[in-house]
Amino acid sequence: MPATMVFEVGVHMLKEYDDDGYQRVFNQPFTGFPKDVGFNNGLSAPQPDFVEGLEMQEYDPFPVDEYVEGAVLYKDNPGSLSLPHFAGEWKGCGKHMEKAKLQSRYDGAALITTFPTDGTNINFYAHHAAPSDDGMLKYYQYQYASANVKDTYQGHKDGRRGINEQDHARKQSYALRDQLKEH
Question: What is the DSSP letter of 59?
């Protein structure tokens, strides 16, 4: 069922990009992401159904894998996505949406923007971390949009507009890469 959801939602909602260095990965654990950084202590690696971002070699000559801990998601993979900004979770219609939201929160702590969907409803979340009063990192998630993409044309348009965050995430990936290269 998730593969069907990825195809159905992906074909109608997600954009395709022509640039070779900006890629998608489906259902792969973040084997290069550090363990025990606060939000993931004792948990398995984040593994979103969908993640999109720049490949590691796009950061050359800046050695992003050496200087930014957790930047490279897939250990020992020169084509690994690095510092991605957009991920998604799919669940069957009417089933496990709460689980998808929870997984999206977990993925988001390692990323910036996530969305869970069941093919009917789609929610969009932004994520960030900040030190709390006791000096520990605290992770925040904010739902900034949601839509029912099946019931009305307006709902479909609203969901599609939310997916436009995909463009913003792509621009942010390139801007971050350029900043790191300049550094």
Answer: G
Distance between CA atoms of 4 and 9, rounded to whole angstroms? Answer: 8
* Distance of alpha carbon 121 from alpha carbon 110, whole angstroms: 23
Q: Tell the residue number behind the tokens 């669940």, with chain if given.
A: 91
111-138: average pLDDT? 83
Give the pLDDT confidence of 9-31 residue by residue, as tens digits.
666 678 888 888 899 998 999 99
CA-to-CA distance for 134 and 42, rounded, in angstroms?
21
Q: Where are the domains of the chain?
A: 2-182
Residue 172's φ and ψ, nearest 5 degrees, are: -65, -40
The residues, any chain, with a CB within 8 Å of residue 46's CB and separated by 6 or more, are 29, 30, 33, 40, 106, 107, 109, 110
> What does the block give as tokens for 75?
């250990």
| Secondary structure class of 9 (helix, strand, coil) | helix
Q: 140 forms bridges with which residues in the sheet?
A: 128
